[in-house]
Amino acid sequence: MNIEKIKALTDILCSSGLSAIEVGEGENRIRVERGVSAAPVALNKPVSSAQTSPTVESTDVKAESDFEPIVSNASDSLIEVKSPLVGVYYAAPSPDAETFVSIGSKVKKGDVLCIIETMKLMNEVLAEHDGEIVDICVKNGDIAEFGQVLFKLKN
Fold it and tell me: Which of the residues in the chain have pLDDT under 70?
């Protein structure tokens, strides 16, 4: 991928209002982001060390088991499970299948909560804690942003 294509991606990113764009050409992948406050999940091997926005970095596609949800404690009793990457949220393994979880579901560490599809890769989001689902914050088919709250769990 040449510098002209990278500049074109940067222009698209800035003019569209997107926070990130990722493309692949052969075995090469480029991800361009702006306004990133935390380290992205699937990035490594920086192309440029410049700290200006937008940033340009090279990526390797990770296997679905490499993605872990971001977990934070919103209060003493609720645990927020946040999206580990940008992609389409799927509540079930297929359109005609039952959802992985629903409000009131008891989950154990390692249970599949949902799937986030990114670049045609299906990435399972696993429970990091035992608990009960008290809120599902996204709808099936919605775009989940990096760090967006997907579920709230009660210990």
Answer: 1, 13, 16-18, 34-76
Does this model's pTM top 0.85? My answer is no
pLDDT in tens, 84-109: 999 999 999 999 999 999 999 999 99
Domain that holds residue 36: 3-59
- Indicate if 98 and 131 belong to the same structural domain: yes
Cβ–Cβ < 8 Å for 78, 133 = no
Last residue of a domain, one of 20, 44, 59: 59
Residues 91 and 144 in one domain: yes
SS (H, E, C) the chain: CCHHHHHHHHHHHHHHCCCEEEEEECCEEEEEECCCCCCCCCEEEECCCCCCCCEEEEECCCCHHHCCCEEEECCCCEEEEECCCCEEEECCCCCCCCCCCCCCCEECCCCEEEEEEECCEEEEEECCCCEEEEEECCCCCCEECCCCEEEEEEC
137 HSE (CA, 13 A, CB side): 14
